[in-house]
Amino acid sequence: MIKKPFKDIELSRLGLGNMRFILSDPDNGNSPIDRPKAHAVIDSAYANGINYFDTAYVYNGGDSERCLGEAMQKYPRDSFYIADKFHMHANPDYEAVFEEQLKRLQTDRIDFYLLHCIMDGNADEYLNSGCIEYFLKQKELGRIRYLGFSSHAGTDTLRRFASYRDWDFAQIQLNYYDWFFNTAKEEYEILTERNIPVVVMEPVRGGRLAKLSPEAEAILKNAHPDWSTASWAMRFVKSLPNVQVILSGMNSLDQMNDNLNTFSDDNVLSEADQAVLKEAAECFRAGIVVPCTACRYCTEGCPMQINIPEYLKVYNEWKVSGGRVDMDLYRGVVSEGTPDMCIQCGACAGICPQSIQIPDLLKELADAVK
Question: What is the second-level CATH architecture of the domain 3-279?
Answer without folding.
Answer: Alpha-Beta Barrel (3.20)
